[in-house]
Design goal:
The complex is a heterodimer of chains A (227) and B (34). Chain A is elongated. Chain A starts with a helix and ends in a 23-residue tail after the last helix. Chain A has 10 helices and no strands. Chain A has 227 residues and is mostly helical. The model of chain A has no long low-confidence stretch (mean pLDDT 97). With 34 residues, chain B is mainly α. Chain B is rod-shaped, with a radius of gyration of 15 Å. The model of chain B has no long low-confidence stretch (mean pLDDT 91). The chains are: A mainly alpha (227), B mainly alpha (34). At the A-B interface, α4 and α8 of A face α1 of B.
Chain lengths: 227, 34
């Protein structure tokens, strides 16, 4: 019992977000299904059961378009904070630290500690890959979800066209269609605004105890200090 | 402690597996409908 308790405590952040992700996804599925059927009814078309809706391109595109924008947001944030700075923000590095930093700072190669990951010490392509593995994985998930959005969005778009007795469009044509870019950019704009807001608001605002904030008593001018 | 390292690894691979399975599901669904 104490082992389980300890595990839950030491993984509470991941468990909490995993749980509310699943709850929100279930909620999205049910609400999306009801909304879809209401529109079908209004247009004089047949309804879908929930399992049918879950394997429809309408559900797939709604999920994928949100996934891609979130992973793009974090990919860009991880990558841009290597070089770009915001004076006073705990999200920024200290003003003289812009860039990839020295091997010594990064504990790479001969500067690795005894308990450093093996691929940090070995040098060559392994250290090269490991040094950017977080961005590689996040960017891969972004590109995969954006690709899935394009295919699911294309299928959903063509279903609507067929219902209106219009010819379907090719996938390549859909990539240039306003529907694809409207879905894409409406998600991007909100992510970019939120990320910029966090970098800027955290200059003057605090959340006691959060590692995303500066300590409450830290001066507004301190850059790159996390709580 | 090795068993506690294993717990952390399980969390890492669980998240990666959920994302990969989700993407694979969405891809199959969209290709089937496309």
């Amino acid at each position: 019992v104490t082992d389980v308790r300890r595990f839950v405590r030491e993984s509470s952040l991941s468990l909490f977000f995993g749980a509310i992700f699943l709850a929100a996804l279930v909620g999205q599925a049910v609400a999306g299904w009801k909304q879809f059927n209401a529109e079908q009814l209004a247009d004089g078309f047949g309804r879908l059961t929930l399992p049918q809706y879950l394997v429809s391109s309408d559900f797939a595109v709604d999920v994928a378009e949100n996934w891609q924008s979130e992973y793009l947001q974090f990919t860009l944030y991880i990558l841009m904070t290597v070089w770009l700075l915001q004076k006073g923000s705990p999200e920024s590095k200290e003003l003289d630290k812009a860039g990839r930093e020295s091997d010594e700072d990064q504990k790479v190669g001969r500067y690795a500690d005894a308990d450093s990951p093996a691929w940090a010490r070995t040098g060559g392509w392994r250290t090269g890959i490991f040094s950017t593995s977080l961005v590689l994985v996040m960017a891969s998930i972004f590109m995969a979800s954006w690709a899935v959005q394009s295919i699911a969005g294309w299928a959903a778009f063509n279903e609507t066209r067929l219902e209106h007795l219009q010819d379907p469009v090719a996938w390549g044509a859909y990539l240039l269609n306003a529907d694809f870019w409207s879905r894409t950019l409406q998600n991007w704009q909100s992510e970019f605004l939120a990320v910029g807001s966090m970098a800027v608001f955290s200059i003057y605002l605090r959340q006691r105890g959060s590692p995303e904030s500066k300590p409450v008593g830290e001066p507004h001018s301190s850059t790159g200090v996390e709580g | 402690v090795p068993s506690r390292e294993a717990e952390v690894r399980v969390m890492f691979w669980s998240y990666l597996a959920v994302v990969a399975a989700g993407l694979a599901f969405l891809l199959v669904v969209s290709l089937r409908n496309g």
